Amino acid sequence: MVLGAALAPQPGFAQAPAKVGTAKPAKAGPAATLWLTTPDQAQLLREQPGKLAFRPAAAKTTGPVIELNDAQRYQRIDGFGYCLTGGSAELLHRMGAAERAQLLRELFAIDGTNIGVSYLRLSIGASDLDAQVFSYDDLPAGQTDPELKHFSLQPDRAHLLPVLKEILAINPRIKLLGSPWSPPPWMKTNGESKGGSLKPECYDAYARYFVKYVQGMAQEGVRIDAITIQNEPLHPGNNPSLLMPAEQQAEFIKKALGPAFKAARLDTKIIVYDHNCDKPEYPLTILRDPEAAQYVDGSAFHMYAGQIEALSAVHDAFPQKNVYFTEQWIGAPGKFAGDLAWHVRTLVIGATRNWARTVLEWNLAADPQQNPHTPGGCTECLGALTLDGNAVTRNPAYYIIGHASKWARPGSVRVASTEPDKLPNVAFRTPAGQHVLIVLNDAAAPQRFRIRLGGRETAAQLPAGAVGTYVW
Questions:
Q1: FRET pair for 331, CA 20 to 30 Å: which of 28, 29, 243, 382?
Q2: CB atoms within 10 A of CB 129
Q3: Which residue, 394, 410, 426, sits at the end of a domain?
Q4: Domain shared by 350 and 265, yes or no
Q5: Gap between the Cα atoms of 359 and 345, Å rounded
Q6: DSSP letter assigned to residue 202
Q7: Residue 6 domain-assigned?
Q8: Do 61 and 183 sit in the same domain of this protein?
Q9: Helix (H, G, I), strand (E, B) or coil at 352
Q10: Co-location of 300 and 240 in the same domain
């Protein structure tokens, strides 16, 4: 049976009796294209032959129905993508020019079979997936630079900026989020890249550090759409890292960062938290402080602990503030079927159904040994791509994001869709007026179901554990 074709009539699927005579045939309705990934990897984000035709809905049907409602709209989407770590950029930059150009087009262009990644998260300074620890103002121990005379983006000129400029040439509208793993060590209570806290006397200097970063990237032709203040502020055990409790983050925003952005006339968004779903009280603490909240666009989340519904709890308390999902790893070597189902169910579907404007998977690329990383950094983070010189392996996160990024373009709006048992899904209306429906068959057997919109419906099916993106 062809998976992408309309199914033959099944028991319980009522059909109108055929008419004879001179009656004109009914006007053809829309037809959906199915892009499919199966857990056995026989189909990997592959367009299926045939179309799913929409016809007038039958008066009585049995079986599950996913019904969309265009009139019930939720958040706009900023994009789907990855974290372009320094290590990812280094591996990409070391590829041959022709091979890299071809791969970047596959990732960031939206035509053909390219996946159209529309959002990237960058580290401000080093993340733990850089080959070495650095900031933009490193000094010998005991020295300080409160006026930031030694600030320089030079470390990013080796690999990150050249790759970013190639990406921007393919997709000039891609949105970029910057997140620091640590301030320069001289700003910290322990004087080290790992752990410690931001010294209060360094608030103003650190605020200017953010301003210089945004302005410096702009001078390079790279617009930073948003920043988070600290990656995983409650996890000081990484290298680099920083401990920054909610009360301190609020104080830093209202006393230093917010006024500094305002004085510099930056429109770069300030996003708080950037950590796990188990501590929604962290962003809520900041948003309840009106002096801090006036500068805050919204909150960012990871999912190494807690429940994805925490995003809705924060949104419902402050509906005027945005919600973002900014990081989730897959542990090497990965388990394709389980990773595909969990990440699509929890993030692509779950995060967006809980108001997230972005869904970002952790590192875009690593080598076959999950390098590079800092001493003490993540040794098991499986990239969306494994790069071995010019050889490319596409891993689960490539397909997880690809099922959304190509079709749910920036500016798409999530619309209501019902959720039958074992068929989690999310629906969008794109700026071009298309409908996009992402469905996971979360059952252990194939499922038949109907997709219904505006009095028309089509019959569909998915193999067990498969993900389908329907576009019409």
A1: 243
A2: 28
A3: 410
A4: yes
A5: 12
A6: G
A7: no
A8: no
A9: helix
A10: yes
464: CB partners within 8 A, 6+ apart: 39, 441, 443, 444, 445, 446, 447
DSSP assignment of 1-34: --TTSPPPP-TTB--PPP--SSPPPPPP--EEEE
Q: Going residue by residue through the chain (472 aa), what tens digit of pLDDT does each one get?
A: 233 333 232 222 222 333 333 334 445 568 999 999 999 999 999 999 999 999 999 888 789 999 999 999 999 999 999 999 999 999 999 999 999 999 999 999 998 889 999 999 999 999 999 999 999 999 999 999 999 999 999 999 999 999 999 999 999 999 999 999 999 999 999 999 999 999 999 999 999 999 999 999 999 999 999 999 999 999 999 999 999 999 999 999 999 999 999 999 999 999 999 999 999 999 999 999 999 999 999 999 999 999 999 999 999 999 999 999 999 999 999 999 999 999 999 999 999 999 999 999 999 999 999 999 999 999 999 999 999 999 999 999 999 999 999 999 999 999 999 999 999 999 999 999 999 999 999 999 999 999 999 999 999 999 999 999 999 9
Number of structural domains the chain divides into? 2
Residue 396 in tokens: 């689960």
3-state secondary structure of 441: coil
In a domain, 26, yes or no: no
| CATH number reported for the structural domain that contains residue 424 in this entry | 2.60.40.1180
- The three-state DSSP-derived secondary structure of 132-149 is CCCCCCCCCCCCCCCCCC
Per DSSP, the three-state class of 295 is coil
Token digits of residue 143:
């020295």
User: Is residue 231 domain-shared with residue 171, that is, in the same domain?
Assistant: yes
Within a domain: residue 61? yes
Q: Is the distance from CB of 184 to CB of 138 less than 8 angstroms?
A: yes
Q: Is 119:174 a contact under the CB 8 Å cutoff?
A: yes
DSSP state of 59: S
Cα–Cα distances (Å) from 56 to 4, 31, 183, 228, 429, in that order, read 19, 12, 60, 48, 21
Instruction: Note whether 403 and 455 are same-domain residues.
Output: no
Look at residue 22 and tell me if it is in a domain. Answer: no
Residue 138: how many CB atoms within 10 A of its CB?
17
CA distance 36 to 42: 10
Please give the positions annotated as active site.
232, 327
Say if residue 305 is in the same domain as residue 212. Answer: yes
Residues 350 and 447 in one domain: no
Q: What is the pTM of this model?
A: 0.93
